[in-house]
Amino acid sequence: MVDIFDEIDEDVRKERLNAVAKKYGPFFGGVVALIIGSVAAVTFWEQHKEAKSADAGTSFLSAVRDETVKPGSGASSFAQVAEGGPAGYGVLARIKQAESLAASGDRAGAIQVLDLAKSVDAPERYTALASILSLSLRSYDEKPEELLPLVDTLTVSDHPWRLFAIELAAALELKLGRINDARKRLNIISSDASAPVSMRARAEMMLSGLPES
């Protein structure tokens, strides 16, 4: 009888874990996408003030406005800026193009564009952003055990998006059923005073919803 009850408890635990992973797995994948708009917009504006091409800046801002009004509508405009504008616009335009494609449901297209963005001649902070966003989108469809080693390479201490990589890694650990490993990663975020308040809140929310291992 003990064995039977142990099996029932294990089934309940797995069911609860699956529910948590199902509820928050895609959420984690989308978190990085949500930060793109603000990060890219602020950075773009700083570059825009020094840009030589007013036409490229106008086109970029126009595409941003279109995307704000109707998510998914600015992809082609961002692509034109990336291909024809000054080099400084390339990575940001590609990231925004990918964001637009993802908003319209074309994750495969968004990933392809982000892979282009990773090779653009730009500061590491922005090419690294393209890398982690690409992995977050891939996490919807690809096997977590194959993606996790790639995400782990972005969790090193000097990586500009380390905490977002740890957050994504925690989601992948959940998909693999590794509760303790996910908990350890989430604890890193919740205890890091430098982490954004919203990120710490997400980590604490997840920690409170994890079943006992």
Short key terms for the protein model shown above:
single chain, 213 residues, mainly alpha, 2 domains, 10 helices, elongated
In a few lines, what is going on in this structure?
With 213 residues, the protein is an all-alpha fold. The chain has helices spanning 2-48, 54-69, 75-84, 87-103, 107-118, 124-138, 144-152, 162-175, 179-190, 197-209. It has two domains: 22-141; 143-213.
Largest sheet: none
Measured between the Cα atoms of the first and last residue, the distance is 22 Å
How are helices and strands ordered from N to C? HHHHHHHHHH
**Overall body shape:** elongated
> How many runs of DSSP E, i.e. beta strands?
0
The total tally of domains equals 2
In round numbers, the mean pLDDT is: 75
Percentage of β-strand residues: under 5%
Helix content: over 70%
> By helix and strand content, what is the structural category?
mainly alpha
Query: So how many helices?
Result: 10
Would you identify the regions where 5 or more consecutive residues have pLDDT less than 50?
1-14, 24-42, 48-52
What is the C-alpha radius of gyration, as a whole number of Å?
A: 19 Å
What does this structure look like?
It is built from 10 helices and no strands. The two termini are 22 Å apart. The model is unreliable at 1-14, 24-42 and 48-52 (pLDDT under 50). It is mostly helical and 213 residues long. The chain has 2 domains: 22-141; 143-213. It has helices at residues 2-48, 54-69, 75-84, 87-103, 107-118, 124-138, 144-152, 162-175, 179-190, 197-209. The protein is elongated and about 55 Å long.
